[in-house]
Structures are given as C-alpha cells and as structure tokens.
Amino acid sequence: MATTTEQQSDSADTDDGVLAQWTQGVIGDDEKRSRLYQALFYVACGFFLVTTLFPFYWLLVLALTPNSAILTGDWSLPVIGLEFPHPQGFNPSAFVEVFQQVPFHLYVFNSFVLATITTIIVLLVASLAGYVFGRLDFPGKGPLMLGVLMVSYFPPAAFLIPLFDAFLGNAVVIPFLGIELFEPPRLVNTPGSMIMPFSALFLPLAIFILTTFYAQIPDGLEDAARVEGTTRLGALFRVIMPLSAPGVATAAVLTFIAVYNEYFFSSIMALENVPQNWSPLVGGILSYQDQYTTDFNLMAAASIVGVIPILILVIVAQERIVSGLTAGALKE
C-alpha cells in the first residue's frame, strides 16, 4: 500500500516537473513563446468567428429553404448523421417575396430615419455636454457626471409607463399632490414618441465618450482659435470636434446601431404594427407571423436584408470605431 502511494506521488512529481520544464522552455525561448501566442490567438479568433457567424449561416439556410421544408424537414446530414442546419431545397425568391408580401422597405426606412435623427440629436447635445465636462471646471462637476451616467443604468421599462401615459395626451400630474402641470400633445404613432426616449437612453454613453476625447485636446489649440475671434461654440465645432473625429464617429455609430435595432419602446409607442405608425425594422420582421402561420424563411430573409445597412456602415467606419474605442485607453 505504501509502495503504491509512493509511486503515485512520484508520478505526480514527474508530471509537475515535465509541465514546469515545458513552461520554462516556452517562456525562455522567444520563438516558442511567439508560436504559443499565435496558437492562442487563432483559437480565440476561431471561437469568436464560430459563435458570431454561425447565427448568420443559420439565417441564410432558413432563407434559402422553402417554408414547407423547414416545418417538415430533417436537419441531419446524410453522410455523418449529425443534426446540423443545411438548406433543404433552394428558394432564393424569398429575398424578393419579403418586399411583395409586406412593405418591408418602409419598415427599414422607418428604422433608418429614427436612427439618423436620434444620432444627430445625441451628437449635438453630447458635444455640448462633453465640452463642458471635459474642458471646463465648475463646482459639482464629478457628481453631475455621475448622475448623467446613472441614467444609463436604469432599465428602459422603468420609464415606459409614465412616458406612454404622457404621450397618449393625458395630463402630467405631480404624484401624491394631484397638481396638474400641463397636458402634452398626443405623440403615440409619431416619430417623436420614439426619438425622445431613444435620445435620453443613449445620450449618457455618447457624453462619456466625447468627454474623454475633448479633454485630451491641448488647450493651446482652442486658445489660438479664441485669439482669432472664435467663440467657445465656434472652437468646439471648428477645432475640437474635427480633432476628435474618431470619438465622434464612435459615438455616432454606436448610437445609430442601438437605435436601428431597438424595438422595446417602438412596439409600445406604435399602437399598431404598420409602417404608417413608424413601426421599425423588427416590427417588419414580425409581420411575417400571424395567428395561424409563420413564414420562417421570409423572417430569416428579412433579417438578412435588415442587417445589410448596418454591415455597410460598420465596414465603412471600422477604422474610426477601433481608433475611437482604443484612443481613450492610453494616457499621453
């Protein structure tokens, strides 16, 4: 018994010794260390690509498969017998039918307009706020910035009921006092009922990004512009914002993508899922589902079509996004 225990201990020590020798050999050899880092990089990239691209592959498979085959088909591959999604038939006409069965282009247009207007409003307000927080000193600056950032931590559902009640045109009343402040106009089924909540929800992140960038601009550049007769507002738009282009582009793209994909507020503020009520992209995708039938191939095709504008935007602005997300990480 004692011999067996000693053998197991010797085996463990041997394994630890081999692992320690291998680790020391890799750390001490630059070429081996470089190969290890390269292998880990490929493994991480492969895992990332599989987990992110596989849903798009599945969407493409569903879009190209007739709906009848989706409901009754066998997803197992005939060679190896694994359950894996692959096209059952070939039906590329689904990408045309999505526009024939439902005015899907109007839903895409609604999301594009809502995202564009919200992005412009957010950039204007966030630029002014970022200038104040990043370049001016005043009492209570820290707590005020913390209060702005706290808004982003509130769940959107917390604002839903009071906003919906106000946008219906009901009078705004002070709780527990019963004092009626004013009666707002009816805004449901209009872009205003969606743009205002979107702007409030995505404004804190844009303020934080632009504050970081505006604070890094040397004071001498702004002072030179002020000497030439430019006001603070003129220096902001003529000097500081052009020099902070990566940060501005990052805030704009992140806001645009978030609003373009948003459906929570839009589904409530648009009382009926029709494009005339400014129902967004996701509402158009759900239009291919009714009480009795669901056209999975059309929903998948519509999802792919809806992703194309965002894909183009990210490809065009990817350098700005990467530089904007990493520039604030280094202190000069």
From TrEMBL:
<feature type="transmembrane region" description="Helical">
    <location>
        <begin position="112"/>
        <end position="134"/>
    </location>
</feature>
<keyword id="KW-0813">Transport</keyword>
<comment type="similarity">
    <text>Belongs to the binding-protein-dependent transport system permease family.</text>
</comment>
<dbReference type="GO" id="GO:0055085">
    <property type="term" value="P:transmembrane transport"/>
</dbReference>
<keyword id="KW-0472">Membrane</keyword>
<dbReference type="GO" id="GO:0005886">
    <property type="term" value="C:plasma membrane"/>
</dbReference>
<keyword id="KW-1003">Cell membrane</keyword>
<keyword id="KW-1133">Transmembrane helix</keyword>
<feature type="transmembrane region" description="Helical">
    <location>
        <begin position="39"/>
        <end position="60"/>
    </location>
</feature>
<protein>
    <submittedName>
        <fullName>Carbohydrate ABC transporter permease</fullName>
    </submittedName>
</protein>
<dbReference type="Pfam" id="PF00528">
    <property type="entry name" value="BPD_transp_1"/>
</dbReference>
<feature type="transmembrane region" description="Helical">
    <location>
        <begin position="236"/>
        <end position="260"/>
    </location>
</feature>
<feature type="domain" description="ABC transmembrane type-1">
    <location>
        <begin position="108"/>
        <end position="317"/>
    </location>
</feature>
<feature type="transmembrane region" description="Helical">
    <location>
        <begin position="194"/>
        <end position="215"/>
    </location>
</feature>
<dbReference type="InterPro" id="IPR000515">
    <property type="entry name" value="MetI-like"/>
</dbReference>
<dbReference type="InterPro" id="IPR050901">
    <property type="entry name" value="BP-dep_ABC_trans_perm"/>
</dbReference>
<feature type="transmembrane region" description="Helical">
    <location>
        <begin position="146"/>
        <end position="174"/>
    </location>
</feature>
<feature type="transmembrane region" description="Helical">
    <location>
        <begin position="296"/>
        <end position="317"/>
    </location>
</feature>
<dbReference type="InterPro" id="IPR035906">
    <property type="entry name" value="MetI-like_sf"/>
</dbReference>
<keyword id="KW-0812">Transmembrane</keyword>
